[in-house]
Amino acid sequence: MLTRTDEVESLMSRFPGVPREAVIKEDLLRGGVAFDDSALSDNESGEVKPKSYFIFSFDHRTLPELGAAALRRPPEEIVLTGGPYELRRTVVSVRVNPASPYRVAADDHGMLGLYLDGKRISDVGLPPMPEYYRHKLSNGKSVMEVAPTIQWGYLIYLTVFRVCQYFGAKQECQYCDINHNWRQHKAAGRPYTGVKPVEEILEALEIIDRYDTAKASTAYTLTGGAITSHVGGRDEADFYGMYAKAIEERFPGRWTGKVVAQALPKEDVQRFHDYGVRIYHPNYEVWDRRLFELYCPGKEEYVGRDEWHRRILDSAEIFGPRNVIPNFVAGVEMAEPFGFTTVDEAIDSTVEGLHYFMSRGITPRFTTWCPEPTTPLGKANPQGAPLEYHIRLLEAYRATMDEYGLTSPPGYGPAGPGNAVFSVSSFMDSLTV
Ligand code: SF4
């Protein structure tokens, strides 16, 4: 029987143009990793930066099923180096799966390693607790809860609205657990603010600015659930925009402002820009028409796929095509029961979408799908998409970028194996420097 090691090594040799680091990273992102207790973080009182649950759970089990990993959080990210594949420095977001063939554990000398099928395949480094996480806001809230940083400290992730107004089976995107994640943290008694007050965000940023003396934090992302009506009397553009305005007034130009929001009409997008946002992520999620309609029923009902795409193109007139970076969720194309049944078809469809946007100077980016167990697609597909899909996507993505003379999108830090910090997909690891 083929082991996961066989599969990984076979893909490494079939696709030599894809860095080996990316093969391991994609496999960890799609299937998760188990943690020995020795590799957990001890929450905010330890020496390791804990997983903040910055928007979705990105785990393969619910909190009550995670045991020690729920009580003593895993690290936010791990960094892999060395081993038999001679991995260059590779930052990977942590998605916990106790049943994964990958395991992070300490050896007899206390050195952490990544094990696949029981064999050590790399050294593992953990992110140190940043100084700014050791300081609380005046109301006692932690910086990790209000303004966590990811991507090895590069990006401040501001999920200012922790739920989505697309609610329930008929509206929620079928791969998204934002609403469940909010419920599970509440149920566990963890602090998990539904709507983050602007003053809290500013105070947390003040702390980050003061203690991040190396200026590792470079950008912030404002995001959260879709707003189909109002939050606090504001529509989506004004709600997310008000944070950007306040941040830019208090810390002009300190970080690059990004917003992940719906594809909004041009006047609303203009307001984002006026408020000081510089990069816009109107995520199109999945390219295929039938799958978009099935997977994103709320978006289809309120906006519709064609209009969504039109608005993405329109927004390039305001932000400039380089600064419009729509995300798609790589892997859901192959989710049963509706997805493509062959990797060829799934790649062809995804690449059609890449051509549509890249031929217009817009560079989409992707997050590797994590099949969270409380989502309809995660439930039906606990193994996620085939690793081959993810590897071929990296190859096709780079080829399409080359075809249109595009380079890595702005706001993602350095590119290339050994350099990238973007942690929830290896697209940045797979591009040339
Ligand atoms: S719009 Fe879809 S993906 Fe975004 S938060 Fe809502 S349900 Fe999740």
UniProtKB/TrEMBL annotation:
Q: Mind telling me which InterPro entries this protein's record contains?
A: Aldolase_TIM (IPR013785), rSAM (IPR007197), rSAM_sf (IPR058240)
Record-given protein name? Radical SAM protein
Q: Which source organism does the UniProt entry give?
A: Streptomyces crystallinus
Mind giving the lineage of the organism this protein is from?
Bacteria, Bacillati, Actinomycetota, Actinomycetes, Kitasatosporales
> What is the residue range of the signal peptide feature?
none
Keyword vocabulary terms for this entry: Iron, Iron-sulfur, Metal-binding, S-adenosyl-L-methionine
